[in-house]
C-alpha cells in the first residue's frame, strides 16, 4: 500500500473493511486486518476503525481473532463505550468448544483494562477456573490477579481465594505456579499466600515438574516457611538437595537462598551447602551470557566472605579472556586477590602483570591495584613488578602505580625504602590529580629519604598558579610544611612563596584557610607545628590489614540471589595475609569435640576446676571461682567496626599516659587487665580454628597475624551481659589483644585496673599479694612455669564500663578456649 497521510490511510482501510466482497473472502479479509495492524505499528492513528474491527472479530479464523484482539486491547482505553460491543463476542468465545479460542477470549477480556467491564469479566473467569483444559485454567488464574490489580481497593471474593488455594494441587504445574503468583498479588496486604506444612511438602514434591522460572517462584515463596521440628527441616533439605546442583543458575541460586534461610541455626550445614554450589557457580562463570557471568562473579564474592578457600583450587577459572568486557575483567581480578596463597601467588602475579598493559586504561589500573592488594602479603614480589611498570613511562600506568605504592607503604612500612627509590623522576609522567596527590603524600611522609624531594616540590610550587585541582593544592601545602620540619634550609623559601600565594592570591576558600592555618602554626613555633602535622600515626596492626576473619553467612544471606551484590561497587576490603583463613580450604565437617567443650554455660566451671586440679593455691584465684557465680553471657551485637576498635584501643592508651583531670575521671569507668596464659602451641593454631572456637562462645576476632609469624597478635571484642543479684543485667564492652613474641618468657604478670582515686596500680605479683591486690590466675602462671616447653601468650583486656566480676568471668572463658585449642592441637 502506498504511503498516505493518517486520514487518507484510515479512509482507505475503512473502505476495505466495509467492502462486502472482501468480507466474503476470508483470506483477503485477514490481509486487510493485517494492514490495519501494520499501520498501527508504524504510528498511524487508526483508532477511528474501532467499530469496524469489532465486527471483524466475529469470525472462526483464530489468526484473524488474534490480530483483532491486539487492536482492540490497544485502543480500548480510548473507546470505553464501544468496548462494550466487544464483551458479547468475547463472552461467546469463552463457550467455544476449542480451548485455544476460550483461553484467547479470557486473556483479551482481562487485557482490556477497563474498570467498567469488570462485572462482565468475573463470571467467565470463575468458570475458567474449573475448565477442563489446562491452558484455560492458566489464563483464568492470572486473570484474577489482573482484575485485582485493576481495582486494588476492592475486596476479592473469598470463594475465589479458596478456589485458587484448591488449584495449588492442580495436575498442571503451570497452573500451580500461576496460582502462587495470583495469590501473592491478591493477598499482598495480608503478607502473601499462607504457607503451611502440607502446602510446603506438596510444592517441594512437584518442584521438578516446573520449568526454570516456575521453580524459582516456588522456592522464593517457600522462604517464608519455617519447619517446626529438626526432622522436618532435614526432610525439606533432602528434597532440595537435587536442586542445589541444578544446571540452571537461577534455580541453583534460589535453592541456595532458601537453604541458607532454613539453616540459619545450623551454620555447619549452611557452609556445607556453599561447598555444594561451587561447581554450578564455576559453570555459570563460563556462561556465554555476559550478564550471567557478571552475576555469578558478584555472588562468588559474597561466598568468599564466609568461605575464603572455596575457590582456591580453581583460581585459573578467573583468569581474564581477551574479548571479555572490562567490567567482568575487573570483577575477576577482585576475586583473584582473594584467592592468593603461597602456591599460586607467582602465577597470579604473572597473569596480573599482563593485564597492566591492557588497552583499556580502567582494566590496566584495576590490575595494578590488584597487585597492590596482594603486595600487603607478598610485598617484595609485588614491589618488583610495580617498579618495573614505572619504567614504561605511561601516564595512566605511572599514576596507578604511585597510588598503589602510597596505599601499600601505609600498611607495610618496611617497603618504604624501595618505594622511595622508585619515586625518583616519576613526577614528569604524572598528569592526573590523583597520581600527583599520591606522590605529594609520599614526599610528605618520606621526604627526608628522597634526595630530590625539594626539587620536585619546587616544580609543583612554580606551577601552582596553573593548577586546577584543589586537592593537589591542599596536598602540596601539607607536603611543603612537613618537609620544612625535616629539611628547613632547602624548603624555607619555597614555603614562603607558597603561603603567600595561598593567602593573597588563591580564590578557593579551602586552600586559603589551610594556608592561614599553617601560617599561624608557624607563628606559634616549631613545637606547636609538629603537634599539628606530625601527630601519632595509626597502628596498621589494629585494622583488618593483616588478616580478615571469615564473616558469618547470616550477614549476607538475605542479599543472596538479589540485585544487591550487583549494585555494590568494588569491595574495599583489605586482602588477607599469608596463611590467613582465606587460604585455608574449608572442611565442612564440624569439630564436634570442640563444640561440646566450648559450652558457655559450663566453661567457667571447667576453668575453675582446672585451676584447682593444677594446684592453684593463690587466694585471688580461689576468689575468681567464687566471683563468677552470677550468670554471665557474651554477645556479638552491636558489631564493632575496625575503625571503632582502633579508636577505643588508642583511647584507652591515652588514659594511661595523659594526666588530664577529665580523662582521669573517665578512667574510673574503665578497667585494664594484663595477664599471661601458658599453653602448648597456642600461637600456632590455624586462624580458621581460632575464629571458629571464639565464635562458639560469642567472641569476635577482628584481626590476626598469620601463624608462625612473630610477633603473633589477635585482636578481639565482645559484649558481656552480667546479672547481679536482684539487679537488672549490666552490659559492658570488652576489647582485647593476644600477643606472643616468641621470646623466653620469664616475666611476672601485671594487672592494671582503674582504682577508686583514679591512680593506676601496677607492680609485680609478689607486691600485689603483699598489698592485698587482686591478681588473677597467679597460681596458674606458677604451675605453668614448671613446664619450660609451654609458650606464654600475653592477654590484654580493656573494659568499659567497668565491671570487675564480668571481666574476670570473661578472662576465665577466654583462658578455657585457649587451653582447649592447645589441647586439640597437641
Provide an overview of this structure.
The chain is α+β, with helices and mostly antiparallel strands and 826 residues long. Among the domains are: 463-524, no CATH class; 630-651 and 670-741 and 791-825, TATA-Binding Protein. The protein is built from 40 helices and seven strands. Strands 1, 2, 3, 4, 5, 6 and 7 form a seven-stranded antiparallel β-sheet that branches. A hairpin with a 7-residue loop joins strand 3 and strand 4 (712-723). Helix 4 packs antiparallel against helix 5 and helix 27 runs antiparallel to helix 28. The longest helix is centred in the last third of the chain and has 22 residues, at 804-825. 38% of the residues are buried. Mean pLDDT is 80; it is low at 539-547, 571-629, 661-666 and 744-789.
Structural class: alpha+beta
CATH architecture heading of the domain at 630-651 and 670-741 and 791-825: 2-Layer Sandwich
Task: Show unreliable segments.
Answer: 539-547, 571-629, 661-666, 744-789
CATH superfamily of the domain at 630-651 and 670-741 and 791-825: TATA-Binding Protein
Separate helix tally: 40
Q: What is the mean predicted local confidence, pLDDT?
A: 80
Main location: membrane
Protein name: AP-4 complex subunit beta-1
Keywords: Membrane, Protein transport, Transport
Domain Beta-adaptin appendage C-terminal subdomain: 632-819
Amino acid at each position: 500500500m502506498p504511503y498516505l497521510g493518517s486520514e487518507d490511510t484510515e479512509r482507505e482501510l475503512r473502505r476495505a473493511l466495509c467492502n462486502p466482497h472482501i468480507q466474503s473472502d476470508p483470506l483477503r479479509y485477514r490481509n486487510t486486518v493485517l494492514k490495519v495492524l501494520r499501520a498501527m505499528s508504524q504510528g498511524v492513528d487508526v483508532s477511528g476503525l474501532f467499530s469496524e474491527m469489532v465486527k471483524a472479530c466475529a469470525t472462526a479464523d483464530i489468526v484473524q481473532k488474534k490480530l483483532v484482539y491486539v487492536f482492540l486491547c490497544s485502543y480500548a482505553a480510548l473507546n470505553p463505550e464501544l468496548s462494550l460491543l466487544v464483551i458479547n463476542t468475547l463472552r461467546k468465545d469463552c463457550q467455544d468448544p476449542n480451548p485455544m479460542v476460550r483461553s484467547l477470549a479470557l486473556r483479551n477480556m482481562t487485557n482490556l483494562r477497563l474498570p467498567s467491564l469488570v462485572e462482565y469479566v468475573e463470571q467467565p473467569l470463575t468458570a475458567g477456573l474449573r475448565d477442563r483444559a489446562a491452558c484455560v485454567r492458566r489464563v483464568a488464574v492470572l486473570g484474577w490477579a489482573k482484575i485485582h490489580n485493576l481495582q486494588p481497593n476492592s475486596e476479592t471474593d473469598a470463594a475465589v481465594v479458596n478456589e485458587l488455594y484448591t488449584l495449588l494441587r492442580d495436575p498442571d504445574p503451570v497452573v500451580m505456579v500461576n496460582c502462587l503468583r495470583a495469590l501473592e498479588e491478591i493477598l499482598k496486604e495480608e503478607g502473601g499466600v499462607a504457607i503451611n506444612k502440607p502446602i510446603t511438602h506438596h510444592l517441594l514434591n512437584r518442584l521438578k515438574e516446573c520449568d526454570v522460572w516456575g521453580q524459582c517462584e516456588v522456592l522464593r515463596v517457600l522462604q517464608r516457611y519455617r519447619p517446626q521440628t529438626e526432622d522436618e527441616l532435614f526432610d525439606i533439605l533432602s528434597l532440595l538437595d537435587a536442586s542445589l546442583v541444578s544446571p540452571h543458575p537461577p534455580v541453583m541460586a534460589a535453592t541456595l537462598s532458601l537453604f541458607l534461610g532454613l539453616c540459619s541455626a545450623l551454620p555447619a550445614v549452611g557452609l556445607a551447602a556453599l561447598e555444594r554450589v561451587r561447581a554450578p557457580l564455576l559453570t555459570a562463570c563460563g556462561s556465554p551470557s555476559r550478564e550471567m557471568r557478571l552475576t555469578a562473579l558478584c555472588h562468588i564474592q559474597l561466598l568468599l566472605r564466609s568461605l575464603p578457600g572455596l575457590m582456591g583450587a580453581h583460581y585459573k577459572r578467573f583468569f581474564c579472556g581477551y574479548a571479555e568486557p572490562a567490567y567482568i575483567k575487573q570483577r575477576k581480578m577482585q576475586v583473584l586477590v582473594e584467592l592468593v596463597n603461597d602456591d599460586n601467588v607467582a602465577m597470579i602475579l604473572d597473569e596480573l602483570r599482563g593485564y597492566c598493559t591492557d588497552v583499556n586504561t580502567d582494566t590496566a589500573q584495576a590490575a595494578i591495584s590488584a597487585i597492590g592488594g596482594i603486595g600487603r602479603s607478598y610485598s617484595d614480589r609485588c614491589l618488583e613488578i610495580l617498579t618495573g611498570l614505572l619504567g614504561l613511562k605511561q601516564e595512566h600506568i605511572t599514576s596507578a602505580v604511585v597510588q598503589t605504592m602510597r596505599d601499600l607503604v601505609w600498611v607495610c612500612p618496611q617497603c618504604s625504602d624501595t618505594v622511595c627509590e622508585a619515586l625518583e623522576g616519576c613526577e614528569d609522567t604524572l598528569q592526573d590529580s590523583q597520581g600527583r596527590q599520591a606522590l605529594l603524600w609520599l614526599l610528605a611522609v618520606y621526604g627526608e629519604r628522597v634526595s630530590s624531594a625539594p626539587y620536585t616540590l619546587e616544580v609543583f610550587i612554580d606551577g601552582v598558579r596553573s593548577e586546577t585541582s584543589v586537592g593537589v593544592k591542599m596536598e602540596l601545602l601539607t607536603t611543603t610544611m612537613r618537609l620544612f620540619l625535616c629539611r628547613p634550609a632547602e624548603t624555607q623559601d619555597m614555603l614562603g612563596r607558597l603561603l603567600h600565594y595561598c593567602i593573597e592570591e588563591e580564590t578557593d576558600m579551602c586552600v586559603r584557610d589551610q594556608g592561614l592555618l599553617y601560617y599561624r602554626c608557624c607563628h606559634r613555633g616549631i613545637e606547636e607545628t609538629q603537634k599539628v602535622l606530625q601527630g601519632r600515626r595509626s597502628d596498621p596492626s589494629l585494622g583488618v590489614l593483616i588478616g580478615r576473619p571469615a564473616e558469618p553467612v547470616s550477614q549476607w544471606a538475605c542479599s543472596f540471589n538479589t540485585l544487591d551484590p550487583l549494585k555494590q561497587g568494588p569491595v574495599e576490603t583489605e586482602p588477607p595475609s599469608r596463611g590467613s583463613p582465606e587460604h585455608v580450604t574449608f572442611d565442612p565437617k564440624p569439630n564436634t569435640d570442640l563444640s561440646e567443650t566450648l559450652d558457655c554455660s559450663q566453661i567457667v566451671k571447667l576453668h575453675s576446676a582446672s585451676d584447682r586440679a593444677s594446684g592453684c593455691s593463690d587466694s585471688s584465684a580461689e576468689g575468681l571461682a567464687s566471683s563468677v557465680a552470677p550468670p554471665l553471657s557474651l554477645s556479638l551485637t552491636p558489631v564493632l567496626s575496625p575503625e571503632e576498635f582502633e579508636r577505643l584501643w588508642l583511647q584507652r592508651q591515652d588514659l594511661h599516659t595523659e594526666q588530664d583531670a577529665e580523662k582521669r575521671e573517665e578512667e574510673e569507668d574503665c578497667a585494664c587487665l594484663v595477664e599471661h596464659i601458658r599453653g602448648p602451641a597456642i600461637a600456632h593454631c590455624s586462624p580458621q580454628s581460632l575464629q571458629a572456637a571464639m565464635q562458639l562462645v560469642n567472641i569476635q576476632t577482628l584481626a590476626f597475624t598469620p601463624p608462625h609469624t612473630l610477633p603473633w597478635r589477635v585482636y578481639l571484642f565482645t559484649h558481656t551481659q552480667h546479672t547481679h543479684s536482684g539487679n537488672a543485667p549490666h552490659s559492658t564492652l570488652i576489647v582485647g589483644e593476644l600477643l606472643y613474641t616468641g621470646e623466653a618468657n620469664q616475666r611476672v604478670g601485671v594487672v592494671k585496673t582503674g582504682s577508686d582515686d583514679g591512680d593506676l596500680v601496677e607492680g609485680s605479683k609478689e607486691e600485689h599479694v603483699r598489698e592485698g591486690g587482686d591478681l588473677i590466675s597467679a597460681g596458674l602462671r606458677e604451675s605453668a612455669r614448671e613446664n619450660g616447653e609451654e609458650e606464654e601468650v600475653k592477654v590484654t583486656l580493656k573494659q568499659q564500663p567497668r565491671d570487675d566480676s564480668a571481666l574476670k568471668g570473661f578472662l576465665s572463658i577466654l583462658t578455657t578456649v585457649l587451653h582447649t585449642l592447645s589441647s586439640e592441637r597437641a
